[in-house]
Specification:
Elements lengths: L6 E3 L5 E4 L15 H9 L5 H5 L14 H13 L3 E5 L4 H17 L3 E5 L12 H9 L4 E5 L6 H9 L3 E5 L13 E3 L15 H18 L15 H10 L6 H15 L5 H9 L9 H17 L7 H7 L3 H33 L8 E4 L8 H12 L3 E5 L7 E7 L6 H11 L6 E4 L3 E7 L3 H13 L8 E4 L10 H10 L11 E14 L5 E8 L5 E9 L11 E13 L2 E13 L8
Parallel strand pairs: 2-13, 3-4, 3-5, 5-6, 6-7, 8-9
Antiparallel strand pairs: 1-2, 9-10, 10-12, 11-12, 14-15, 14-17, 15-16, 17-18
Helix pairs in contact: 3-7, 4-7, 4-8, 4-12, 5-6, 7-8, 8-9, 10-13, 11-13, 12-13, 13-14
């Protein structure tokens, strides 16, 4: 790998940069390959403990604020046979967290455990008045939230008023005033001393249930019952962590790596094994990438559609029957196909509408016919095409109608900050809003959409930096490492993900052949035959390519940013070089 920094620019403003080299001497005793050693050191791996990601090194729960109180309340409900409701959410983190709570509480011997997963289209997000009223009617004595609750003040008050105990477990940012509850466990709340604030919702509940087990064990509860092994449920925590795209710090990597190991060994929940089978994934070699791009979209799909009845995704994760799990996994696969159909139509319409807004610094799109559940996906795809902040809305086209919107941004333009300023300066503009710097949700009345567009443009124009997206590479890869063996070595060094990005390499090559074709899902696929600087041949592929590459021809010189991937089919595996970015080189050629 070369020392850098080397920089070149894309047409759409995307910048590819090489990472600065860092001192990796501290890993010499543990990592023989110098390329891999530099990759790991550049991502902050400090020692053998962080390298191994052993379950024994998992952070202890003791420093999580209020966890002792939460454990006592839950343990008492288990011992006294009270009706317990696990209140989750419709995304992967909420679904896996809900299944985790139900399964472990039942494994503890809780007599009555139910769950609630709201519809995106009915009942709203998280702990709502509807959930509380249902709990009252069913005689629930304790509600445990997972991946939600930290902002549900009114519903929390209603639960306590009805005599229902409430334990909130969440991982979202906390407001200055917290809801009333018997206990709140959220690593982001003020005064929390837990070393990692990056846990997902399922991860927070996993830690709480570890503390509950300790309380039950110390009280003699398991003297006549088998003591559950909570590591048996790490497959659910791994899916929640990957699906919620939380930073993979050292502790989250331990959770994910051990959860993936459990799936690879075939010791996962029946629903997860069935889903992997439907996705045609190789269990022994399952990666975080497989989970993120094959399994998670299928778990999310039912929540994006207007389905009648219960969400089949939560039924799948709770299912213990292999045959029934396979039927449910097939149902999720069909939901994902339907979601894809809706998305393709809406994306085509959105991109057509976006062309009328060229020259703006932010794009605001509205389609009354678009499904609310796919707005974030559409906003993300349009943002990829234009490299601009994008908001996409849907809802009835009539005065007084409430529109639902989803936004995706670019580095340097924080949507959460901008929406906060808009709300403060125009208190009647937004009905509600929330989210993060790069992704946010907002609701407003139809008659306020044009004003929102106007004021948003003014705010984005003042943002410190927009449209300057960056892709960092790990430099040139020696040809001796451009092989299947090293690709497998990179896989084993994972899991890779948010804040621990998979290795990306760059290099200059001469095109031997170029084919731009339509893929199975309707997108463009670019296949390149290439000559390396030494004159050797190699193949590379770019998924979700665009028509801008239609003029690539034999003899052209291109710079690529690419990853090494292992393509597995049946029991065979081969190296696949996947292009992330491509630019034409005009100053000279590469020797063949």
């Amino acid at each position: 790998m070369s020392p850098g920094p080397v920089v070149w620019s894309k047409k759409r403003g995307r910048t590819i940069k090489r990472r600065e080299r860092v001192d990796d001497a501290h890993l010499e005793a543990y990592v023989e390959n110098p390329v891999l050693r530099q990759i790991l050191a550049s991502r902050g791996v400090r020692d053998a403990v962080e390298l191994k990601c052993a379950l024994a090194d998992l952070l202890h729960y003791a420093s999580l604020k209020n966890i002792d109180k939460a454990a006592e309340v839950i343990a008492a409900a288990v011992r006294e046979g009270e009706q317990i409701l696990v209140a989750g959410d419709y995304d992967v983190d909420g679904l896996t967290g809900t299944a985790l709570g139900v399964k472990i509480l039942r494994a503890f011997g809780a007599a009555k455990v139910s769950f609630s997963v709201p519809s995106r289209y009915e009942g709203g997000y998280g702990l709502s008045e509807e959930v509380v009223q249902r709990a009252i009617s069913e005689g629930v004595k304790l509600i445990i939230t997972v991946d939600n609750g930290i902002s549900c003040h009114q519903a929390a008050q209603s639960a306590l008023k009805a005599g229902i105990k409430l334990v909130i477990t969440d991982h979202h940012e906390c407001q200055s005033t917290l809801p009333q509850a018997q206990a709140i466990v959220d690593p982001k709340q003020s005064g929390d001393q837990f070393p990692s604030s990056n846990l997902c919702g399922a991860g927070v509940l996993f830690y709480v249930l570890c503390a509950v087990r300790a309380v039950l064990r110390d009280s003699g509860w398991f003297e006549r019952r088998s003591l559950p092994k909570l590591s048996d449920f790490l497959d659910l925590v791994a899916l929640g962590t990957i699906g919620d795209v939380v930073p993979l710090d050292a502790n989250n990597r331990r959770l994910v790596k051990n959860g993936l190991m459990q799936i690879r060994q075939g010791r996962a929940q029946q629903g997860i094994l069935a889903l992997a089978r439907i996705c045609r994934l190789s269990l022994p070699a399952l990666t975080a990438h497989d989970v993120a791009f094959a399994m998670c979209p299928r778990l999310n799909a039912p929540g994006r559609l207007k389905l009648q009845g219960a969400n089949p995704a939560i039924e799948l994760l709770l299912c213990d029957d292999a045959q029934r799990a396979l039927e449910l996994a097939q149902s999720l696969d069909m939901c994902n196909r339907r979601r894809g159909d809706f998305e393709r139509v809406a994306l085509r319409e959105a991109l057509t509408a976006a062309k009328t807004q060229l020259g703006k610094q932010v794009v605001v799109l509205y389609g009354p016919q678009w499904l609310t559940g796919i707005l974030g996906l559409i906003a993300g795809r349009v943002r990829e095409q234009l490299n601009l902040p994008v908001f996409v809305f849907s809802g009835a086209d009539e005065e007084g109608s409430e529109l639902q919107g989803s936004g995706r941004s670019v580095p340097g333009c924080s949507l959460s900050d901008i929406l906060g300023e808009l709300d403060e300066e125009n208190p009647t503009l937004l009905v509600r809003y929330g989210g993060h710097a790069m992704a946010a949700g907002v609701s407003l009345l139809r008659e306020n959409l044009e004003l929102f567009d106007e004021l948003l443009c003014e705010k984005v124009a003042k943002a410190p930096r927009c449209g300057d997206d960056e892709l960092y590479t790990d430099g040139e890869l020696p040809e001796s490492c451009r092989n299947l063996e090293f690709a497998c070595e990179l896989e084993e060094a994972g899991p890779w993900g948010s804040a621990f990005p998979e290795p990306v390499f760059d290099g200059t090559f001469v095109i031997r052949s170029a084919y731009l074709m339509t893929g199975r899902q309707g997108g463009k696929l670019l296949r390149l035959g290439l000559y390396t600087p030494s004159g050797a041949s190699m193949q590379a592929v770019m998924y979700r390519a665009s028509d801008e590459f239609a003029d690539l021809k034999e003899g052209m010189t291109v710079r690529l940013a690419y990853v090494l991937s292992v393509d597995r089919y049946m029991r065979n595996q081969r190296l696949e070089i996947v292009i992330k970015e491509l630019e034409r080189v005009t100053d000279g050629n590469v020797a063949r």
